[in-house]
Amino acid sequence: MQGSPSRAPEGADYSDLIFLCGPLRSGTTLTRLLLQQHSQISTRGESDYYFDESAAALRAGDDTPEARERFAEDLATQRITRDQKVTPPPVGPLRDMIESLLEQERPKGGGRLLLTLHRHADLAAELFPNARFIRLRRDPRDVAISAMKMGWSGNPYHGVDVWRISERHWQAALPKLAEEQVTDLSFESLVNAPETTLRRVLEELDLPFEEAVLTPSGSTYSAPSGSRAKAWQSTLTTREAAEINDKIGTLGENAGYDCTQRRRPSLLRKLALRLGNRVGIWRHDVGRYGPRLFAEKLLAHRLGSGPYRRSVGERIQARDRLFLK
User: Fold this and answer.
1) 3-class SS at 13?
2) Mean of pLDDT values over 255-282
3) Residue 240's closest CA among 111, 314, 154, 130?
4) Is 28 within 8 Å of 123 (Cβ atoms)?
5) Cα gap 228→221, rounded to integer Å
6) Rounded to the nearest 10 degrees, how much is the dihedral formed by the CA atoms of 182, 188, 190, 191?
7) What is the pLDDT of residues 90-107, one digit of tens each?
8) Which end of the chain has fewer CB atoms at under 10 Å, N or C?
9) Which residue ranges make up each domain of the chain?
10) Of residues 287, 286, 259, 263, the one with CA closest to residue 273
11) pLDDT of residue 147 exceeding 60
12) The pLDDT value given to residue 226
């Protein structure tokens, strides 16, 4: 990290914050839906918007007017911030803007605030020094398959990238956190032994167990089921699994999974995987958005910011909402 995020305001207390940190497709939504049933926990939903646009400037110590304007625009146009009815804060120092977001979300009657991050756990650890963190782990090969099914990649080899990015940020967060700040949670334990696992998680968060946390409500998600764990063993070929293991290196073992059987793809194989990834994503997008909107999406991306790109983005967001679970 070249620079450093602004220090926390003097006397600031973040002990009411719980950050749920895990890769996309690792079970963060299920975990959040379960924990939000607790009478002392509140949450809006995913919170990646805190850092997705501000991260580069925070890491570089580059808190410029341009960076602040980009952050404000991102908050105003993201689907998630719109759906959660987040009010973009006044443009100012990035730290102040983040604090303003936090104050919007903190429960007015007390209790704990749960924020879900799929990326940038290291920034959260630095900006909120006495917050609590749940580290959610899931087998990277299962994450890779799930990411591909979402249309974010065209094959598992590239699908594991969402896991790898998240895990790197978590490894960078660890030196900033005291042992007592971190609660370890694996997706596999959650779905195979939900009550035992959630009792332990709540105990470590200094919260009493409540039966309500065993069943998600207000969504189409079902209660935890062990059938969702280790699906990769019957889905991936030996070669595909070994190539994923090679790509993530020692991160797999650091996360508690046996990823030692590795196979490095040849240059020709990597080119084929890259092409298959792009074709797979395009095929998914054409199916979801239709040929015309897909073509406009590609064009808007090349044109950069502006009214046309915002218009296309709004139509894409409207289509994406139809597929939310």
Assistant:
1) coil
2) 97
3) 154
4) no
5) 13
6) 170
7) 999 999 999 999 999 999
8) C
9) 17-232, 274-325
10) 263
11) yes
12) 67
